[in-house]
Specification:
Layout (H helix, E strand, L loop, with lengths): L4 E6 L5 H12 L2 E3 L1 H11 L3 H6 L10 H10 L5 H4 L3 H19 L2 E4 L3 H4 L6 E7 L2 H12 L3 H23 L11 E4 L5 H15 L2
Parallel strand pairs: 1-3, 1-4, 2-3, 4-5
Amino acid sequence: MGNAVYTIGREFGSGGLVIGKALAERLGINFYDKELLQRAAKDSGFCQEIFENHDEKPTNSFLYSLVMDTYSAGSYSSAPFLDMPLNHKVFLAQFESIKKIAEQESCVIVGRCADYALADNPDCINVFIHAEIEDRIKWISKRLNITENKAKDTIQKKDKQRASYYNYYTSKKWGDSRSYDLSLNTSKLSVDDCVEMIIKYRELMNK
């Protein structure tokens, strides 16, 4: 059995980040959110600011086959890679770092198409966290200290951005239950409930 890896996809304001952190803490393993950007910058030699500027932001001209061919070659100095637009390079570097991390350790990774990068990893459990829009509005309004109308606009913008990024790079549909092993509703489940269910799923999977 390989490393136990968990990926967390999440609607904005659903608590996915909190659940990911709680799961990692409960299991005593590393948690990667913004930390993934630091790792990708270190692995690729790119400036971390570049990854932050392109973090989970969609692109309109991603050449999937070109990137996959370059990934197979495994070289940042190959001609196809050098000729790529910057956002393509950023995605590829992040893609490689996700795979390296999963090979080296058990961990929790939030967002960044990690479930897709680890699609061939039998020890990876992919989770999607969602909640009712009313609950998300209240949570974001309180967390960011903004009006509920502003919170709703922010949620819609963030969800659209994440969906566009995920759908484009993975050729799957963000939030579609068929793309994940577990889909958990935090309007009905607490953070602890979600952590327990994810751990229980691993136990059942390993029987």
